C-alpha cells in the first residue's frame, strides 16, 4: 500500500496543498514550525481516527475555517482508491471512499499507516492512558469494528459513573440500585471483549517487538509487554488511584466472570467515590527491559529504542495480517534524536517497506538511502526538491 497524492484544505497551517508521493522513501525537509508534521499528521488521522499530538479534532482545522479536508489517493496492487475525511467544527465529521459516503470510523479499512514521533517516548515514560490509547488505536487498525466497541464502552462507563455519582449524592443504599445491575451487564459485555482483544494483541506483538528492538538497538535487552488488568487485582498508577486492594487475583477465570467478581468486590468503594474503579479504562501494560520496568530504569536511549521498536512491531504485525500490503511507515522528526549508529540501523530496518514518509529539520540527519525523493516545506507551502 502507498499514497500517490495528498490534498489538504484548511488543515493546520495549510490553506491548500497538493503533494505527490513516490514509492519507497519520501523525505520532507524544513525548519521547525513550517508544517512538516502537519502533513504526515493528516495521513496518520486517516488510519487511526486521531492525532498523535492532540486529543481534539478541532485543533487540526485551520484558524477561521469551519472545516478541514484531507484527501488521499491510495494505491495497492494496481487498484486506486480516493479516501477523504472532512473534519467539522460544529457538525459530525464526514468521510468518503471513491466519492461514496462512509462512516468516519470505517476509514481504517481502507488505509493503514504507523507513525512514530518524539511524542511516542511517552509510551514508555508516560501515564497508563497513553499506553491504553496506543493499544486501542492498533486494535482499530487491525479490526475497525473495535472503534464502535470502544465508543460503546465509554458511553456505558459514563452512564454508570453518572449513576454512581447520583447515588453518592442522594445516599442511596446499595440494595436500592437495581438500575446499576443493568449497566453492569453492558459494562461487562463490552469491557470483556475489549480486554480480551488487548490481551491477544499484546501476545501477538511480543515476537515482533523482540526482533524490532534488536534491529534498532543492536542488542537483545529482552523487551517484554506484560498486561496489568485491574479485574485481576493489578495495582495501576493512574490519575485517580483505584481500590484494587479489594480485588483478589482470578487467574484462569474467564474475563466476564472475573470482571463481575471485581465489580462486586469494589462496589462499596465505587458508591463512596462515584467512580467505576476496575475495567479496561484503568488497565495498563508494563514494559520491561532485562526483567526491569522500562519506566524508571531504562536510559534515554533504551527508552527511545523501546518506543521505536514498539511502533516497528506494530507495522510488522499489520504487514503480516494485511491483505492490502504494507502499512505506510511514517517517521516524524525521528533521526535528529538518534546517533549515527542508530540512524543507520533504523534505515536498514525500514528499507523493505513499500513506502516510508520521513520529516526532518536538517537534511544531513537522514541517511542517504532515504533521501531519493525529497521535498522542501516552508510556511505551509510545498517547495522545490533541494539539492542533495
UniProtKB/TrEMBL annotation:
Keywords: ATP-binding, Cytoplasm, DNA damage, DNA repair, DNA replication, DNA-binding, Nucleotide-binding, SOS response. One of its GO terms (biological process) is SOS response. GO terms for molecular function: ATP binding; single-stranded DNA binding. SUPFAM superfamilies: P-loop containing nucleoside triphosphate hydrolases. ATP binds at residues 30-37. The RecF protein is involved in DNA metabolism; it is required for DNA replication and normal SOS inducibility. RecF binds preferentially to single-stranded, linear DNA. It also seems to bind ATP. One of its GO terms (cellular component) is cytoplasm. It is found in: Cytoplasm. The gene is recF. Belongs to the RecF family. Its main location: cytoplasm. This is DNA replication and repair protein RecF. Residues 3-360 form the RecF/RecN/SMC N-terminal domain. It comes from Leifsonia soli.
